[in-house]
Write a structure and sequence with these properties.
The chain is an alpha/beta fold and 198 residues long. It has seven helices and twelve strands.
Amino acid sequence: MTYKGYLIDLDGTIYKGKNRIPAGERFIQRLQERNIPYVLVTNNSTRTPEKVQEMLSTQFNVHTPLDTIYTATMATIDYMNDLNRGKTVYVIGETGLKTAIAEAGYVEDTENPAYVVVGLDNDLTYEKLAVATLAIQKGAVFIGTNPDLNIPTERGLMPGAGAINKLLEAATRVQPVFIGKPNAIIMNKALDVLGVKR
């Protein structure tokens, strides 16, 4: 291992759905033993960093400090803060995404939000899509937490956040700004967290 630091994916690398990937677990343990910096970078916007940390510890034998976890949600908030277009947002997503955005000072607006943020939402409805479509048409910045069309699970490849974004893109004729991997936004932000240069 001659690299100064590592950015490590989670879904499909450290685990697959609820199934462990022991080689991934061992790799992180080796990095810890050698004091090589790493950041676990995940496109999953459904969990808070605390929930990711807890899940890794209890289900996958990976014990890692909270500051080594960087999610697409965190990168999304950093991106919105950088744009500085106001603190109103409409979010399609789950509790992890909504809570983090609210805690960052953003207020829900279903009429004229500055941003529409779209992540994975297991309770997706037509009404949510309609509200997002209208807001994007009015000029809200359209942000996709990640472009993943599918998510690897123990059941197989399931629809991902990217699939929801594709639907909204078709309905609005507006392309989202994707934050998550493999896009540069999350990787550059994760490098800042890691404290190394590319």
